[in-house]
Amino acid sequence: MTPRNASDDPSDANDGQQWSDLDRPPLNAAALRRALVRGGLWSSVDVVPATGSTNSDLVALALSGKAEEGAVLVAESQSAGRGRLDRQWTAPARSGLFFSVFLKPGAEVPVERWGWLPLLTGVAVATGLARAAGVDTALKWPNDLLVNVGGEERKAGGILAERAGDGVVVGIGLNVSLRADELPVPGAGSLALAGAVSTDRDPLLRAVLRSLEERFVGWRAAGGDPAVSRLQETYAAGCATLGRNVRAELPGGMELVGEAVAVDGDGRLVIASEDGVQQPVGAGDIVHLRAGG
C-alpha cells in the first residue's frame, strides 16, 4: 500500500508525529472535508491524532455550543474509548475507524423515537461497509456489528449514542485492519480478518458517513417513524439476533431467556419465552445462545 500524507493542511499532519506501519497510513482530513462537507448533513470533519474518547469530546463541544449539527470528530487512536455500560474499547493506532457524529433529529421527530438512532446507525454502517469493503456485516441488537471470520460470528464494532442538549452524539468504533494477534478478546474480529476487499480507511469512512446521511435524512423526514422510513423493516432484515435463542441480562440482575422474535415499533427486542409469553426488552445485554442452549 502506498503511504499518503496525513493531510495537505499542516494542522492535520498528526502534530508532526511519524507513523511507521505502511499498512496503516493516517487519514487525510482535508480530503475527507472536500468529499463530505458539501452542503448536506456533514458540516465539519476533524481528525485528531489521539484522544480519550471522541464521544466525550463531541458531547462537551455540543453542550458548550461549539459543535454544529453534522459535526464529525475522528481519532486515529483512543485511550478511553467506550462501549455500552462504559466498557472500554481499545485498538492499535490507525487500525480502525473511531469517530463520533452530532445529529439533531429536530422538533419533527418525537423524543421517544430518538432511541432508534443506534439501530439506524447500525443499518447505515452495514450498508456502507457492504459497498466499500465487500463485507457482510450483521447487526446484533442493539448496537454491535458482527462479521464472519472462519465461519465464526465475531464482533468487529459497536455503537454508542449519548444525549447532548437538543441533539445526540453517536459514536462508532470499527476494527478495520486488526490482526489476529492484536485481538483484545477471542470473540473480536475485524474487516481484514473477514476478508474485506479494502482496508483503506478513507473510502470506508466516506462510504459509512454517506450511508448514515442518507438513512438519517430519510428517517427525520418521516418524523422518525420506523415503519414509514422502512427502518424497522431494514433493521430486522439485517439483525442476526432475530430468530435466535438468546439470554437477556437485564438491569438489576434479572435474566430473560427465549427466542428473539421481533423488534417492535419502539426499537425494543421482543423475546418469547418457552410458555409463549412475549416480553419487549428496551435495555440490557443480549447473549446469542447456541442451539439447544
UniProtKB/TrEMBL annotation:
Residue span of region Disordered: 1-24
Instruction: Tell me which Pfam families the record gives.
Output: BPL_C, BPL_LplA_LipB
Question: Which CDD domains did the record assign?
Answer: BPL
Which EC numbers does the record give? 6.3.4.15
Record's protein name: biotin--[biotin carboxyl-carrier protein] ligase
Asked if the record carries the keyword Glycoprotein, the reply is no
Residues in domain BPL/LPL catalytic?
A: 35-220
Cite the entry's keywords alphabetically: Biotin, Ligase
In which organism is this protein found? Streptomyces aureus
Single GO MF descriptor: biotin--[biotin carboxyl-carrier protein] ligase activity
User: Ligase: present as a keyword of the record?
Assistant: yes
